[in-house]
Task: inverse folding
């Protein structure tokens, strides 16, 4: 693991799918953390998640898709309107 910013960014953006899975991990709630003795797990489809950052923070929903190529997850009932109103 390099401490170079350039190499770290290159490794992040060119990471293969099996490494992106680990990068796209999420923290567990306190009760689940105690139950499984683990701090975070990779996100999967059908997981119940709570958004903690951005416009939709404090909303909960179910993961419908994990888009590893774009480092995104899609959550039920969390959609953004297009700029042209469609």
Result:
């Amino acid at each position: 693991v390099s401490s170079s910013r350039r190499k770290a960014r290159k490794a992040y953006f060119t990471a293969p799918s099996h490494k992106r899975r680990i990068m796209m991990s999420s923290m567990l709630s306190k009760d689940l953390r105690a139950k499984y003795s683990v701090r975070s797990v990779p996100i999967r489809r059908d997981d119940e998640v709570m958004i903690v950052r951005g416009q939709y923070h404090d909303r909960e929903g179910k993961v419908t898709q994990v888009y590893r190529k774009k480092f995104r997850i899609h959550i039920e009932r969390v959609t953004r309107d297009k700029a042209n109103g469609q």
